[in-house]
Amino acid sequence: MSREGAPVFSAKAVVKTFGTLRAVDGLSLAVEAGEIYGLVGPSGSGKTTLMRMLCGLTPPTAGEVRLLGYLMPRERRAVEEQFGYMPQERAVYRDLSIGENLLFFGQIYGMDRKRIAARTAQLLEMMNLADRSRQRADRLSGGERQRLSLACTLIHEADALLLDEPTIGLDPALRAEFWDYFHQLSAQGRTLLVSTHYLHEADRCGRVGLMQRGHLAAEGTPAELKSRAAALSGRAVPDMEDVFLVLTGARQGGAQ
Amino acid sequence: MKLHRIGAMAERVLRQLWHDRRVLAFMLLLPAFAMILFGYSFSGDIRGVRVAFVDEDKTDLTASILENLQKDEALTVRVLAPGGDPERLLLDGGYQAVIRIPAKFTSLYYAHFAMGVATSAQGRIDLTLDESDPQIAATVRKSLADALLKLGEGGPVDVQVRDLYGVEVRFIDSFAPAIMGMVVAMISTVLTLLSIVREKVDGTFARVWVSPVRRGEFILGYVLAFGLIALVQSAVVLTIGSLVFHIVINGSIFWAFLCVILFAVGSVGLGTLLSALAQTESQAVVFFPLVMLPSVLLSGMMWPVQAIPAVLRPLSYLVPLTYSNRVLRAVMVKGLAPWQEPLGFGGVLAFVVLTVVAASLVLRQRGRSTE
Ligand SMILES: Nc1ncnc2c1ncn2[C@@H]1O[C@H](COP(=O)(O)OP(=O)(O)OP(=O)(O)O)[C@@H](O)[C@H]1O
Ligand SMILES: [Mg+2]
């Protein structure tokens, strides 16, 4: 588990450059066990890049990234079984069935077939995909494939979860279901880092980091962010979208 | 390195192929198709070259020359009356060669033996050849030489032929090993390359990368899957080879399969290596001819490496199939053990080590790089 009470996810003054582009630019954050932390920000603000660094998929240009207290990517072998990553693209094997996808991802985490079968039944029930386990992934609708992708991330019951835009492209009802499920996971003591650019979803996070051009423009609980925006603009700001615009300086003091 | 993860990787690759029935069919039909196509078009033995035989001497000796020529399956001999113009016969008569035995041939022939070097007298045969097809011309020359050699006692030289390496080896016999190597190399390289590129495009590669799967396990998973497929493909080639073409296998099937599997391992390594150079599936497709053409043209599969111009010949030794051909032919045709063909066997082993090591280095780089 986490090394000497270290945060589950942490970043210190992290920079990631691609050529001259600073995709992540001096970002720091710490996510504690059991939290649902929402990474909210517009397209291109660096959410995916930050998550990939936290997973050890790409090293930071400067600063340090830790997962459960272990330096990524150097010490990633120590934590590789303890986290699950859901990539932004619906990363499943299109030419395998639902069941075979889950079987493979369970197997590489060392689960035996019996445990995988039990876990598969449970996950498919949850994802409303029960009885479909023989269907091929390329015959699934976008939302179904997304649910399969989430199931693949959850199969080995990891404690730390990095979910990159898990709800993108889902209808509102399904999105609400996903979030209910995230809360169940967090109630079980799991830690979630969830990125989204649906600002309304920020309301359902324990804590939110507003990302802008590679750094955090603001961070806090949804209530904190709203009151800070209210203080800045001099009026109540109940809507997360307005909070974002005020706090990132796109819109000042209630002026339209 | 965990066996169960290698097994999981291999099982997944095989399941993917199993679902893709078209690819599966292709994998099994390709060896059959290649064997039949190449087998029929390159069966190598030229038959029925049309030859006109003009005998102006008419003796027992010339009769036995004619008889020898007629026994040769490469030729279809027509006996023509003397007097025709050989050139006309080639141009208008539809003949590919004209053999004319002038009058007094027999007496000059025996005079030569009776008087030895003391005379310039010598039997002479006129051979008019259509040189526009060198292979046909060579066949006729050889057949005529054979016919003269077979005259037996009294013939100019007594050549004793010793056929090494078993029964008569036909072109197709030495072609089957090459087909086996080519098909296995092509399928393993191309499907590994495509499959890994697709994993990168779809993002499943990132999932596997963050999982406990090691680079070595990743590659070995592919190796295991394509090793099995190589076995099946080799069996198809050998079955068709023996059923349709009655190929002769003088050596051990065990060693042949072992060498084919080794070659498949190297090809998987090569596919993995190439996957680092392609970002998309269409970029990957560009590599196919790059792998295939040198293999077919330079490996000694169609013609011996000695027939390749000296400038290009060093390139032959950069083509993996060259080594596979050598060792598989040594094993299957000559009945040797792989190490009795050190260049071929060593080349295949080096190919395996180089590509697999390079592939695992390249996988590391790719996994951590920008995309
Ligand atoms: N491999 C790469 N090479 C070059 N530039 C990259 C690379 N990966 C990301 N970028 C750039 O870094 C910036 C941040 O990208 P990132 O994917 O992290 O954004 P994001 O916040 O996840 O956006 P979205 O909400 O659209 O997914 C973008 O401008 C992107 O073009
Ligand atoms: Mg993103």
Layout of strands and helices, then pairs:
The complex is a heterodimer of chains A (256) and B (371).
Chain A: E1 9-18, E2 21-31, E3 36-40, H1 47-55, E4 62-67, E5 70-72, E6 83-86, H2 98-108, H3 113-126, H4 142-154, E7 160-164, H5 172-187, E8 191-196, E9 207-212, E10 215-220, H6 222-233, H7 240-247
Parallel strand pairs in A: 3-8, 3-9, 6-7, 7-8
Antiparallel strand pairs in A: 1-2, 1-4, 4-5, 9-10
Chain B: H1 3-19, H2 21-41, E1 49-55, H3 60-71, E2 75-80, H4 86-91, E3 97-101, H5 105-115, E4 126-129, H6 134-149, H7 171-202, H8 204-210, H9 215-244, H10 253-275, H11 281-285, H12 287-298, H13 313-316, H14 320-332, H15 342-368
Parallel strand pairs in B: 1-2, 1-3
Antiparallel strand pairs in B: 3-4
Helix pairs in contact in B: 1-9, 2-7, 2-9, 3-6, 7-9, 7-10, 7-14, 9-10, 10-14, 10-15, 14-15
Question: How would you sum up this structure, described in words?
Answer:
The complex is a heterodimer of chains A (256) and B (371). In chain A, a hairpin with a 2-residue loop joins strand 4 and strand 5. Chain A has helices at residues 47-55, 98-108, 113-126, 142-154, 172-187, 222-233, 240-247; strands spanning 9-18, 21-31, 36-40, 62-67, 70-72, 83-86, 160-164, 191-196, 207-212, 215-220. The N and C termini of chain A lie far apart (49 Å). In chain A, the strands form two sheets. A six-stranded mixed beta sheet of chain A has the order 6-7-8-3-9-10, sandwiched between helices. Chain A has a four-stranded antiparallel beta sheet with strand order 2-1-4-5, covered by helices on one side. By secondary structure, chain A is α/β, with parallel strands linked by helices. Chain B has 371 residues and is mainly alpha-helical. Chain B has a four-stranded mixed beta sheet. In chain B, strand 1 (49-55), helix 3 (60-71) and strand 2 form a beta-alpha-beta unit. Chain B starts with a helix and ends with a helix. Chain B folds into two domains: 49-163, abc type-2 transporter like fold; 171-370, no CATH class. At the A-B interface, helix 2 of A face helix 1 and helix 8 of B. Bound molecules: adenosine-5'-triphosphate and magnesium ion (MG).
